[in-house]
Amino acid sequence: MSTPLTARGTRTKTKLIEAAETVFARYGYTDASVVRITEEAGVGQGTFYLYFASKLEIFEELVEDLNRRVRRAMSEASGAASNRIESERAGFRAFFEFTAEHPALYRVVREAEFVSPKSLRLHYSRIVDGYIEGLKEAQLLGEVGDIDPTVAAWALMGIGEMIGMRWVLWGDSADAGNDADPTASGTSRVPDDVLDHMITFIRRALAVPESSNGGVEK
């Protein structure tokens, strides 16, 4: 992978990654091709190879790019929250909004399991690492109970991913099928009441338990 030396080169590389996002989402890894990516980007094949050695290399770069952008969106949103639960709400809302704008995130990450397992692990590990640190800090502040931050981080990420799949990717329109229909489709948003129920569930899971005399256990 080549690092652009000019602003024009940086723009061209960005255009190729954006095109790859569209092509991999539309065709899947197997049916995607360098030709389709360059046509989508509006550049020649020779230009592609100035920046990437292969289809696999741009796929792995795309996974990193999507990961970087979704983590930034979640971090910026949750950073202004006044406590951990509000941070959860803001972070998840940002994740759902990013997914609605970039539905390729789901397909690309899932294909990474077979195409580039190291990219899959990197994607989830980077998200979880930041999550763990946030939960540890919240525990020190007394906002989160005595729960293993690593287990909690993976569990919370799973919740967000499944809720996003159901309401953002599958949508909630008339043609979305029933609540458990895996063939439903349509990019939408997570309704406020769904987010409210989700956060209530998370609040209870992370809550500091009350002692028998009604106070908070130390």
UniProtKB/TrEMBL annotation:
Residues 33-52 bind DNA. It comes from the Bacteria. SUPFAM superfamilies: Homeodomain-like, Tetracyclin repressor-like, C-terminal domain. The keyword DNA-binding applies. Gene3D superfamilies: Tetracycline Repressor, domain 2. Keywords: DNA-binding. Residues 10-70 form the HTH tetR-type domain. Pfam families: TetR_N (PF00440). InterPro entries: DNA-bd_HTH_TetR-type_CS (IPR023772), Homeodomain-like_sf (IPR009057), HTH-type_Tx_Regulator (IPR050624), HTH_TetR (IPR001647), Tet_transcr_reg_TetR-rel_C_sf (IPR036271). This is HTH tetR-type domain-containing protein. The lineage of its organism: Bacteria, Bacillati, Actinomycetota, Actinomycetes, Micrococcales.
